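Kindly go through the following sequence and its backbone structure tokens. Advise at your convenience whether the structure tokens fit the sequence:

___
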Amino acid sequence: MLFRYSLILIFLNVTLHVNSQTNSTIDSLTRVLTTTDNLEERMDIFYVLAEEWAELNFDSSYYYAASLNKAAAESGSLLHQINGYRATGLAFDYDYQMDSANFYYKEGLKIAEQIMDTSSITTLQFNLGTVELLKGNYVSVLPWYNRAIELLEISKIEEGLLLNIFNNLGIVYRRINRYEDAKRIYQRALKILDPAKDQQVRADIFINIGNVFISLEQFDSAEYYYKEVRTFAESQNNKLDLAFALNGLGVVAESRGDYGNALRYYNQVINDKGIEEDYLLFSALRYKAEVLSKMGTFDSANFYFNKAHELFSEEENPEEIKDLYLQMANHFERTGQFRKSNEFYKKHYKLKDRLVSEEVIDRTSEYEERYKAQEKENEIISLKLQNEEASLVAARQKNERNIFLSLTLILMMGVGFAIYMYRVKQKVNMRLEEKNDVINQALADKELLMKEIHHRVKNNLQVISSLLNLQSNFITDEKANAAMLESKNRVHSMALIHQRLYQNENLTEIDLAEYLDQLIDNLEQSYSGSEKDIEIALKAPELMMDVDKVILLGLIVNELVTNCFKYAFDGKKSGLIIVGLEAQNGMIELVVSDNGKGMKAPPKVKQGSLGTLLINDLSKKLKAEVKYDLTAGTSVSIQFPYKKRLS
């Protein structure tokens, strides 16, 4: 279905962010900068140059932003300090370093709120919302945009910025499949737009309305808006908007089965060397590949799918890559390469799960209610089965007594009676088989319910993990952020257990080696942002262990490995962490060691950190003894008794 297509969306920004000046303008401002000694004038030029270079070159943009920050600090001008932080955030924004952009935008917002500069507040709120939009954090977008809209409507200023927010808000609604809301917000933007004054903004909004109609499969309406944009773009020699319009018209043609025209539109975009925006080329390449796949030209389709995949990464463009994976899965399904198709389906849904939306949170309560209703229904079924089984046993005992009396009293009628009893026994056995089938089905239903329970628990823990991740975006204190990350990892260690339970046939035990491998992999990803090269090695045999002990052991491993990352390698660029597990003579020994700088003495429980307290308390629950070896780096061993559960 064509509604799954994700046409590239237009992101507007404030005037200086959108309308980049020509190179001659940059050269002119640079010359003025060399001739003026006026500090106020120099700071204004630094600001403009930082914004102009943001789209062209990160190093140049960052240089002028840093120059502005230094001059603003010397002058004591709070307004220029705000501009300095925003210009720095903008440089990182265009370089797809979203966390850094988020930090500088928030620093600027603190000062803007301090001096109550409404214009700067709304602009920075818009920037922060747009960063979350580009990261795919749609739940976090709406608060920033809604606060900016409220301020702008009260103050009646910055109408252009309000248009930009409406435009991006429509993108958010479209990304969470609220297409009617997206159409409504774009129409609201057009009402406050001056068509004669803001022709470029009108064209941008027309592109996004066309995209909404594609999602609604209203292709005639989409075609009208794309053709309007094409006419405008050709009159202005605007290759960027022309490429948007051609990609949209290609999707419309494809929806009608007009593959020839669809390819013609896409080829115009691909062959136009004057278009420097990768996302337009990315769209045209994957749309063309989709058409070629439908036409059965599979080798050519493979070529264009691969070219599209080379342009974007999952981290920088998760939404677009998610849709590309789905197209490639369908393509390989058409070619009969079902293993490859399955791989890309998995990648698509894994990326889709990562993009947590507000819809996921809203539906959690609905799932809980459905589960409670199902639980009550299963209790009723279980009681009915117990009553029916008791009645069946009583009936069988009564029949056996009658058989004994009949054999004693009517010996001469033995043959006839034997035939009669044989038939009775057949009927009883048939009823028993029927009841056993009911019981077995009920047991299967209970097993399915247990898997569903573990699935729900896993989902809820993932929601908690996502909420902790979102909360960390609002925390600037590094220690608080580190604590938030540790809490998130602890939640994830438990979520992994429930994930494995609902995926396995065995609902009471978990393969400890596979679980620890996944847990360690998550910890490596959590601390992969550092510049240090730290390797983790796992040495563990295949060992099935009950859920309660795995939860305790997983939390202990999480704390020990986290401590290694945090403290063991200060001043070192690389390191090795070894997690070893050995089972022998009814005992299990866990050893976590590193080749880091080591500790002077084992930590004292009452004076230690939260991690030390957790390790000590969890070890007590395992009836384990904790030992430290500080001769080479740090080695922590935990030994506890364990008896394998009988089948």
